[in-house]
C-alpha cells in the first residue's frame, strides 16, 4: 500500500496554479531544506530513518518519514526530480470518530499557514457532481468530507513556493494534507501552466 502522502500528490492540484503572493521571509523552503537539494542532502536534515523510498511518477524518487506537524502525528514526504527536491509535504494521520474535528484541524492549520504566508490566494469547496450542498455549518462540512462528497482546499503562494492545504475523504480514510511545491522546479506546476495556456485557445 502506498503511504498516504504519496497517493495525495497525484490529485492535489485541482485547479490552475496559484498566482504569486508575498515572499516568505525564511531561510528554508520546506522544513530544514531548500528546493533543489539532493536526496543525500535532505536526509542529513532529518534525525530519523526513512520509512520508505520509492518512485512515484512524475517524480523520480519519494522519501517518507514519520513525524509531527503542528502537534499532529504526520507522514512527512520529500519528492525529487532529477535528484532535485521539488516537493515536500505532510499528511496528518490523526483519526477521529467525529468528522467535525477534521474541519477544526483544517482551520487550525489554515491559520498557521496564513500567519506564515499571508492571505490565501484560493479557498475552494469542491462538491461532487450532483451533490446538494445543503447546510454550510461545520458539522455538515465534516460529514460531507468524510463521505467523499466534498473536498476543501486553500492555497498560498510566494515566488519560490506554492502551498496547498487539502481536506478530503471517502474510501474509509479522511486525509488532511499540506503540500509545498517548488514554483520553479516542480514538474506538476509546469503541467498546470501548460494546461492553463492551452485552455485559452
Could you give a short description of this structure?
This protein is α+β, with helices and mostly antiparallel strands. It contains five helices and eight strands.
Structure write-up:
The chain has 201 residues and is α+β, with helices and mostly antiparallel strands. The chain has one domain. 25% of the residues lie in helices and 32% in strands. It has helices spanning 4-8, 39-45, 100-117, 138-146, 187-198, and strands at 52-56, 59-69, 72-81, 84-92, 122-127, 150-157, 161-168, 175-182. The protein has an eight-stranded antiparallel sheet. Helix 3 packs across helix 4 (138-146). It is globular, with a radius of gyration of 17 Å.
How many beta-strand segments?
8
The helix count comes to 5
| Distance, first to last CA | 40 Å
Q: How much helical structure, as a percent, in the residues?
A: 25-40%
The structural domain count equals 1
Taken as a percent bin, the fraction of beta residues is 25-35%
Give the mean pLDDT: 82
Strand order of the largest sheet: 1-2-3-4-8-7-6-5
Detail the poorly predicted runs: 10-25, 193-201
Q: How would you classify the helix and strand content by structural class?
A: alpha+beta
Secondary-structure element order, as H and E?
Answer: HHEEEEHEHEEEH
- Largest sheet geometry: 8 strands, antiparallel
Gyration radius, in Å = 17 Å
Which word captures the global form?
A: globular
Amino acid at each position: 500500500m502506498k503511504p498516504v502522502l504519496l497517493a495525495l500528490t497525484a490529485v492535489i492540484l485541482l485547479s490552475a496554479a496559484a498566482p504569486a503572493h508575498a515572499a516568505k521571509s525564511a531561510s528554508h523552503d520546506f522544513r530544514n531544506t531548500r528546493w533543489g537539494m539532493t536526496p543525500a542532502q535532505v536526509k542529513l536534515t532529518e534525525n530519523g530513518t526513512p520509512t520508505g523510498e520509492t518512485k512515484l511518477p512524475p517524480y523520480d524518487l519519494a522519501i517518507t518519514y514519520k513525524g509531527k506537524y503542528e502537534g499532529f502525528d504526520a507522514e512527512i514526504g520529500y519528492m525529487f526530480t532529477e535528484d532535485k527536491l521539488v516537493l515536500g509535504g505532510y499528511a496528518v494521520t490523526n483519526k477521529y470518530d467525529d468528522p467535525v474535528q477534521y474541519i477544526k484541524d483544517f482551520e487550525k492549520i489554515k491559520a498557521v499557514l496564513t500567519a506564515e504566508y499571508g492571505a490565501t490566494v484560493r479557498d475552494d469547496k469542491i462538491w461532487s457532481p450532483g451533490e446538494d450542498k445543503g447546510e454550510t455549518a461545520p458539522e455538515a462540512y465534516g460529514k460531507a468530507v468524510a463521505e467523499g462528497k466534498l473536498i476543501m482546499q486553500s492555497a498560498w503562494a510566494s515566488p519560490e513556493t506554492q502551498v496547498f492545504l487539502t481536506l478530503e475523504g471517502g474510501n474509509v480514510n479522511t486525509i488532511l494534507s499540506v503540500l509545498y511545491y517548488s514554483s520553479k522546479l516542480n514538474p506538476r506546476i509546469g503541467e498546470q501552466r501548460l494546461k492553463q495556456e492551452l485552455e485559452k485557445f
